[in-house]
Amino acid sequence: MRIQEIHCDSDLERLAVLAAEIWTEHYTPIIGPEQVRYMLEHFQSAEAMRRQIDGEGYRYFVAEENGRYHGYCSLRDEKNGWIFLSKLYLEKSCRGQGLGRLLLRESLDRMNPGPESVVWLTVNKHNAASIAAYGKIGFTETGELTTDIGNGFLMEDYRMEIPVSRLKQTDASLTELIGASTISVRVRELGAQISRDFADAVRADGRPLIVLGILKGSFIFLADLTRSLSIPVEVEFASLSSYGNEKRSSGTVQMQLSPRIDLKDRRVLVVEDIVDTGLTLATLLDHLGKAGAQDVRVCTLLDKTEARAADVPVDYVGFEVPLKFVVGYGLDAAQAYRQLPGLYELKGSGDTGAGPPRAAGLTG
């Protein structure tokens, strides 16, 4: 997951699609569909965002992974020691995993606030979930505001504030989910099972198994898994990126780096760090099929079955994990934490209440 600032119209159009999804899902029960439509048109559309950037001093930042936006925030430096947090929104599947805090902190770093600066925001009085989330980040209520936003709509909000210095002190915490020794044991188990499953076929083919690592998150898992295999292998890499469109929930995935090995009639083991929606994996499997691969199986370190949006086969699973933001052992948050030896939940804004990870049974 990386945090980046956006400016161009095409990015704002993509962001407006995400905004419509979030507002429709989260705010309709709070303020009703008519006000949601009004807010989307006047404050969350691509045209509104362009006006805010060009004429009102706002800057927009997105949380992006493989080209797909998962959340966004908007900030304005009021030049008097105050920074207004106009927007901080995450899609439903990413809430409660520490991403909101990460997005805010990374965006603020790009604003270069002074040491005495204070961030303030307004939040609907009836938006209990967001009030609680801001409280966990460290915001405190400092007042109430009622704003006429036009068309007969009133915004009845709390004002909340946090000093930038305090925000930097309350960094998102890491809670260990799976220790390095547990990972090591599980990887050896996977390696032994994969070696048994492919031994006869590789011997009969007279050609090594192609182990295809998906960049970047799988690189540590790939290295350890490959060393645990007792059959001949060739190592290759691929990279994919998913780009949102007007039907963002389905997404469009593109190959950024294709395997350079001729895959025709070859046996391929795809190695992933994590499978969640399955959309990227579905595109990769289609690509491998068109390339003529004879036998393709998938091995993933982590499997988030609760997030699945595409029906994809996963043959070997290290651990099943709930909807939590996991880092370490190659997995990152804004390019950080990849080097950690274990797997950790990045916390800071609550969690889903789901259970702990568990070793998965081998399905291959």
Describe this structure as you would to a colleague:
- The structure is a single chain.
- With 364 residues, the chain is α/β, with parallel strands linked by helices.
- 34% of the residues lie in helices and 33% in strands.
- It is built from nine helices and 17 strands.
- About 5% of the residues have low confidence.
Weakly predicted, low-confidence segments: 243-250, 349-358
Report the average pLDDT across residues. Answer: 86
Shape: elongated
Beta-strand percentage range = 25-35%
What is the topology, as strand order, of the major beta sheet?
A: 1-2-3-4-5-7-6
Strand element count:
17
Binned, the helix content reads: 25-40%
Q: Any idea what the radius of gyration is?
A: 23 Å
Secondary structure class reads alpha/beta
H/E order of the elements?
EHHHEEEHEHEEHEHEHEEEHEEEEE
Distance between the amino and carboxyl termini: 30 Å
> Main sheet?
7 strands, mixed
Number of helices: 9
Which helices and strands appear, and what pairs or packs with what?
Blueprint lengths: L1 E5 L2 H23 L1 H11 L2 H11 L1 E8 L2 E10 L4 E9 L8 H13 L6 E7 L3 H10 L2 E11 L2 E11 H6 L4 E5 L1 H26 L3 E6 L4 H10 L4 E11 L8 E6 L9 E9 L3 H12 L4 E9 L12 E5 L5 E2 L15 E4 L11 E2 L5
Parallel strand pairs: 4-5, 9-10, 9-12, 12-13, 13-14
Antiparallel strand pairs: 1-2, 2-3, 3-4, 5-7, 6-7, 8-16, 10-11, 14-17, 15-16
Helix pairs in contact: 1-2, 1-3, 7-8
